[in-house]
């Protein structure tokens, strides 16, 4: 079983990297760009057959280590 | 006076810190991160600067999982004095021993230069030898020094005199190098026994090397 974890800065916490990428895209003529956010993706292979148990474990990993919940939010997608 | 200095893989300021405290007459001991206890004779434990675990994932994030951090938490909860410098400050916020978090610098650059700081509060052992509003010249060297805390947390810091240092110019006017909330460079916990700052007082011990303003700061811990 595979878990895809996406970690992003919370709304309201300035994402300087996202802003820099946005300005670069706009400056290169991509005028339709409204906003850019830069985050990270963590892919975890798990020895687990139950999707909800896997999700619970990965959520625990996010709280303990993968995300800093003072400034970041996370999303978990479980793939069979 | 005995000072323990924590060494993670990737820490690189432990020997500068050791040199600085030795120059102030302290006994020092490097504490490897795999240790599960803090020696009982330590008067101060310093989490030194550097790039613990290569700053992978987030600065200080993987270091907080090291065995010594559990021991440090117990040490601090029992009133033990702890100082986190630069990466050590990041480790202490990641661990929850200090509030807030340190984000990527607003301008995205690694900044390495001398910077002036203003002392905001000296009612604590760390800055007791400095005067309020005193301006000190201390090197900074960081990529993730952008201090963030939500508004409620910020008000709490001010209410409890936990804001210790702000980035300024040479006359004490706010000059913010990295986007930190309210230009904050250093804080302490509510009980005033855990301290963290991004600048490096241990690199400001000799006028020959640009400044010795770090001396008065570190001297606060001596015989405190």
What's the short story on this structure?
By secondary structure, chain A is of the alpha+beta class. Chain A has helices spanning about 15-25, 50-65; strands at about 1-10, 40-45, 70-80.
The level 1 CATH classification of chain A is: Alpha Beta
How many separate domains make up the residues of chain B?
1
Overall pLDDT confidence of chain B: 97
N-to-C CA distance of chain A: 5 Å
Number of helices of chain A: 2
Which CATH class of chain B applies here?
Answer: Alpha Beta
By CATH, the superfamily of chain B comes out as Class I glutamine amidotransferase (GATase) domain
Spans where pLDDT lies below 50 across 5 or more residues of chain B: none
- Give a quick account of the main beta sheet of chain B: strands, pairing sense, barrel closure: 9 strands, mixed
Helical content of chain B stands at 10-25%
Helix content of chain A: 25-40%
Identify the quaternary structure here.
heterodimer
- Overall structural class of chain B, as computed from helix and strand content, comes to alpha/beta
Strand content of chain B: 25-35%
Under CATH, the homologous superfamily of chain A reads: Phosphoribosylformylglycinamidine synthase subunit PurS
CATH topology of chain A: Mth169, Chain: A
Question: Can you describe this structure?
Answer:
The complex is a heterodimer of chains A (80) and B (224). By secondary structure, chain A is an alpha+beta fold. Chain A has a single domain, classed as Phosphoribosylformylglycinamidine synthase subunit PurS (Mth169, Chain: A, 2-Layer Sandwich). Helices cover 35% and strands 28% of the residues of chain A. A 3-stranded antiparallel β-sheet of chain A has the order 2-1-3, with helices on one face. Chain A starts with a strand and ends with a strand. Chain B has 224 residues and is an alpha/beta fold. Chain B has one domain: Rossmann fold. Chain B is 21% helix and 26% strand. Chain B has 5 helices and 11 strands. Chain B has helices spanning 14-23, 67-77, 87-95, 151-159, 213-219, and strands spanning 2-7, 27-32, 44-47, 82-85, 101-103, 111-119, 135-142, 146-148, 163-168, 184-188, 194-197. A 9-stranded mixed β-sheet of chain B has the order 2-1-3-4-11-10-9-6-7, sandwiched between helices. Chain B starts with a strand and ends in a 5-residue tail after the last helix. The A-B interface holds A 9, 13-14, 16-17, 20, 64-66, 68, 70-71 and B 57-58, 61-62, 64-65, 93-94, 100-101, 103-108, 146, 148-149, 179.
């Amino acid at each position: 079983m595979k878990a895809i974890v996406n970690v992003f800065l919370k709304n309201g916490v300035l994402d300087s990297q996202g802003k820099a990428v946005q300005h670069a895209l706009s400056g290169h003529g991509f005028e339709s760009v409204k906003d850019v956010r830069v985050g990270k993706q963590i892919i975890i292979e798990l020895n687990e057959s139950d999707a909800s148990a896997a999700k619970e474990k990965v959520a625990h990993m996010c709280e303990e280590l993968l995300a800093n919940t003072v400034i970041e939010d996370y999303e978990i997608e479980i793939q069979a | 006076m005995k000072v323990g200095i924590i060494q993670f893989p990737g820490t690189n300021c432990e020997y500068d810190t050791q040199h600085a405290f030795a120059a102030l007459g302290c006994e020092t001991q490097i504490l490897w991160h795999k240790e599960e206890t803090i020696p009982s004779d330590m008067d101060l434990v310093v989490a030194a600067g550097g790039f613990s675990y290569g700053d992978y994932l987030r600065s200080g994030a993987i270091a907080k999982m090291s065995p010594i951090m559990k021991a440090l938490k117990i040490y601090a909860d029992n009133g033990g004095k702890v100082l986190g410098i630069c990466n050590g400050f990041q480790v202490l916020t990641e661990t929850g021993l200090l509030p807030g978090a340190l984000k990527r610098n607003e301008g995205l650059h690694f900044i390495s230069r001398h910077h002036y700081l203003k002392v905001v509060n000296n009612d604590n052992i760390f800055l007791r030898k400095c005067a309020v509003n005193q301006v000190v010249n201390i090197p900074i060297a960081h990529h993730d020094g952008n201090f963030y805390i939500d508004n409620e947390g910020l008000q709490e810091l001010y209410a409890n005199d936990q804001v210790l240092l702000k980035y300024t110019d040479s006359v004490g006017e706010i000059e913010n190098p990295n986007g930190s909330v309210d230009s904050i460079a250093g804080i302490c916990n509510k009980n005033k026994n855990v301290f963290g700052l991004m600048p490096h007082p241990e690199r400001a011990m000799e006028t020959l090397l640009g400044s010795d303003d770090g001396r008065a700061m570190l001297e606060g811990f001596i015989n405190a």
